[in-house]
Design goal:
about 140 residues, about 0% strand, single chain, mainly alpha
C-alpha cells in the first residue's frame, strides 16, 4: 500500500514540475525582464534569455531522464529514490510557481534547478546504473 502511494505521488509531482517548467517557457520574456535593471541593452536581454532557455532545457532533459527511469520500472519501486523525487519535484513545482508569479530574479532559478532538478536526476542516474548494470533491486 505504501509503495502504491509513492508511485502515484511521484508521478503527480513529476507532472507538476513539468507543467510549471512549460509555463515558464511560455512566459519567459516577463521573467527575463525581471532579471534585468530598468535600463538594459538588447545584449543583456539576449544573454539572460539564453541563460534561462539553457536552464529550462536542462530541466526538461532531466525530467525526461526521470520519467524514463520511472515509467521504465527501474526506479518505480525504489522507496528512497521515490521519496527524494517527490520532495524535490514538489518543492520545484511550488518554487517555480512562485518564480513565475512573483517574477523572481533569474539567479534564484539556478538554486531551484540544482536542488530540485539536477540532484534528483543524479540520483536517478545512480539507480539506473545500479539496476541496469549491476542488476540491483531485481
Amino acid at each position: 500500500m505504501f509503495i502504491g502511494s509513492l508511485v502515484a505521488s511521484r508521478f503527480l509531482s513529476l507532472i507538476a514540475h513539468f507543467v510549471v517548467t512549460v509555463i515558464i517557457f511560455l512566459s519567459k520574456d516577463v521573467n527575463v525582464k525581471a532579471c534585468l535593471p530598468l535600463q538594459y541593452t538588447e545584449s543583456e536581454f539576449s544573454t539572460k534569455d539564453t541563460e534561462l532557455i539553457v536552464g529550462l532545457s536542462l530541466t526538461l532533459v532531466f525530467l525526461g531522464l526521470e520519467f524514463g527511469g520511472f515509467l521504465g520500472g527501474c526506479s518505480m519501486f525504489n522507496g528512497t529514490a521515490s521519496l527524494l523525487s517527490i520532495a524535490a519535484h514538489s518543492s520545484a513545482a511550488i518554487s517555480l510557481s512562485m518564480f513565475v508569479l512573483e517574477e523572481w530574479d533569474c539567479d534564484k532559478f539556478w538554486y531551484v534547478f540544482g536542488f530540485c532538478s539536477a540532484l534528483p536526476a543524479l540520483i536517478e542516474t545512480f539507480v539506473l546504473i545500479g539496476v541496469l548494470a549491476f542488476r540491483a533491486d531485481r
